[in-house]
Amino acid sequence: MTWAINHILSRRFHWYKSILRNLDIFDLLRRNSELENQMALKPEFKPGEFPALPEIKSGEIRLQVLTHRSFYARSAHVFEDHVDDPSPDNEKYEHLGDTVLGLVVTGLLLDMYPCLRVGPSTKIRALMVGNTTLSDISLKYKLPDRLRLHPAQAITLRASANIQADVLESYIGGLYMDQGLPAVKSWLIPLFRPYSSLAYSIVRTQHGLPPLPTPSPTPPRPSIKPPWTLSPTSASAGVDPNVAPTPPLTTIGHLSLFNQHVQKANRAVEWVYSDGGNGESTKTTPVWVVSVFVDGKCLGKGKGGTKKAARNEAAKEGLVGLGVHV
């Protein structure tokens, strides 16, 4: 009787395991179909221009980098491995490689296009490190052929663009752990430079800009100077040029902030103008004086060379009257 029960339980266990394995395959197929609509960058490399794959010297790291989690069929829902039995697959190297790749590609874009804004740069990077592009690179290095996979899933997994991209990221992470960032950069920067040029052209066109006529050499990176750069007089006066002085205070923006508060509170506002007084205002240099009333109460006064400047000064006092301190 005990033998029969154990036999039934064993069969059910293998049946459930088969179902879970098939679910993984279905999820993989779904993600692959989503990738079909994504763009793969395929720049042209001249003979001998495509960088060789660097060798991971540590045999232990190299073996783990090329081991998919299906090979050992460990559960993916465990919070943390036991200290004496860490997971032997390549997922941790893939996770690390994804971050290292992003770091190197971001630095490459900053070097090649120093004036590129963050939004377009993010789009360019997404094209460069997208799974379809990484999958194509991985196939060029024949990394999927070296993957250790579960025999029952090997054909499907090896043909998956996601798995192909993952093993490339895993290899990057393994190389980083084996030899450090300089070795990774010396490989990835020449590899991804043509990809960055192609992605730059695509995103530039998407922004409605004409394509560049011919590739131009990278301009020297401009030196960014702070707006408070000291004059020669200040430097000679003994002011430390390496210490940024406090930026001058400005009152610009009080008017818009004041309007936001009174509109939010649905309060009535009235601006009352008067002459400059004290002989300050002339035909050539007018001086505007204005008082701001909120619900019939004067909260501030201001004067300036334009109506807007005067209202801004009055709004500054008005904010204090509203209990807003800036």
TrEMBL record:
RNase III domain mapped to chain residues: 32-180
SUPFAM superfamilies: dsRNA-binding domain-like, RNase III domain-like
BP GO terms, sorted: rRNA processing; termination of RNA polymerase II transcription; U4 snRNA 3'-end processing
Pfam families documented for this protein: dsrm, Ribonucleas_3_3
Keyword Cytoplasm belongs to the record: no
SMART domains referenced in this protein's UniProt entry, alphabetically: RIBOc (SM00535)
InterPro entries per the UniProt record, alphabetical: dsRBD_dom, RNase_III_dom, RNase_III_sf
Biased composition (Pro residues): 210-225
Residues annotated as domain DRBM: 250-324
Listed GO CC annotations: nucleoplasm
GO molecular function, one term: RNA binding
Keyword Hydrolase set for record: yes
UniProt keywords, alphabetically: Endonuclease, Hydrolase, Nuclease, RNA-binding
Source organism, top-level taxon: Eukaryota
Region feature (Disordered): 210-245
Name of the protein in question: RNase III domain-containing protein
Originating species: Piloderma croceum (strain F 1598)
